[in-house]
Specification:
With 344 residues, the protein is of the alpha/beta class. It is built from nine helices and eleven strands.
Length: 344
């Protein structure tokens, strides 16, 4: 009888705790407001399918030879990114350099040295706090004398970052600099083991504890078989694992502006594909930094020479990029950084 009473008391306490937690979550979700909707829409509209297409046809061209880590094609890709930021007058994150050099000793034997590319807009009110928008710039290179162009993987994400950076810069020129700083981070050596992001984690340009979130973009230009009849979608992975508030912010932004289907299939803990562990956001998540991984799913051209720019859905790439920009704007400008789940 005593055991039952004790057990009942524990059950009661547990029930109360669950109720309080549920109330906190509900209040957190309901408290999210979009304050700059007119500005967000205005600058999101500067992101266009036309510019995405023009840039991607260069980035995934034969001149870049598949952008294999440590090879000349990959170095051409980093120079392309650098030239873009210089043209847009977006500052380097490092002192007088856009390149974070990754030594060959850090990479698998025989790879050769490589580079991450870092561009930066300093925040106006909370410059010490940082939002990172990332995506890998490398691909598979040339295999059996055949170029693997990597237009979707990850030319699409790389070009999305450029357009997002340009939109923030245009807003800054008009007097709307983000309250928090933003790092536009193009990472090398993802395809061979997330080495570029791991190098950044070990050698951060800014203190990791000041990084409020990481929005990682890896393959957002195509449509997978599941959504062949419902193409207005994007997979989100990791959005609620560290910060449910980040998840709710993401959903609120989407509902307010774009109403894409946010598919969380691959966010499941038992996802057999293990996508949560397979792109650069994972190294940030390992540091307890809230993350969202944006992904269109695999398609028949995944990791094949046929992943070419002509197969990208540029209107959909535009819409997905605009969603990420709008989410980034909200994160960079809202009053508080996203609350971690452990604090709830």
């Amino acid at each position: 009888m005593k055991s039952f009473l004790i057990l009942s008391a524990f059950a009661l306490v547990g029930s109360c705790a669950t109720t309080k937690y549920s109330t906190k979550i509900k209040n957190l979700k309901n408290s999210i407001t979009i304050n700059d909707s007119i500005l967000i829409a205005k600058y999101a509209n500067t992101i266009t399918a036309k510019e995405l297409k023009e840039n991607l046809y260069q980035f995934a061209s034969k001149d870049f030879e598949g952008r294999k880590t440590g090879q000349e094609g990959q170095r051409k890709a980093t120079r392309f990114l650098k030239a873009y930021y210089e043209k847009e007058h977006i500052s380097p994150a490092l002192t007088s350099s856009y390149f974070q050099h990754v030594p060959s000793q850090f990479l698998p034997e025989g790879t050769g040295k490589s580079e991450n590319v870092l561009a930066y807009i300093k925040g106006s009110e909370k410059p010490e706090e940082l939002l990172i928008i990332s995506g890998h710039l490398d691909h598979l290179g040339v295999k059996n004398d055949t170029i693997h162009f990597g237009a979707d993987d990850n030319g699409s994400g790389s070009m999305a970052i450029l357009e997002i950076a340009q939109a923030f810069k245009l807003a800054e020129r008009d007097g709307y600099r983000p309250k928090r700083s933003i790092l536009f981070l193009h990472l090398t050596a993802e395809e061979i083991g997330l080495y570029g992001s791991n190098y950044y984690i070990e050698n951060p340009a800014f203190p990791l504890e000041n990084t409020i979130a990481n929005l990682n973009i890896d393959m957002i230009g195509r449509i997978d078989k599941k959504h062949s009849n419902t193409p207005d979608y994007i997979y989100l992975i990791g959005s609620d694992r560290i910060s449910k508030e980040l998840h709710y912010i993401s959903e609120k932004v989407n509902k307010t502006f774009y109403n894409l289907e946010l598919d969380y299939t691959y966010n499941a803990e038992d996802d057999p594909n293990h996508y949560y562990y397979r792109s650069d956001h994972y190294n940030f998540a390992q540091q307890d930094i809230p993350v969202i991984f944006y992904f269109n799913g695999e398609h028949n051209d995944y990791h094949k020479p046929t992943d070419t720019p002509d197969k990208i859905n540029y209107n959909l790439l535009q819409k997905r990029t605009q969603l990420i920009f709008a989410t980034a704007w909200q994160l960079a400008n809202q009053e508080n950084r996203p609350i971690h789940n452990v604090a709830l």
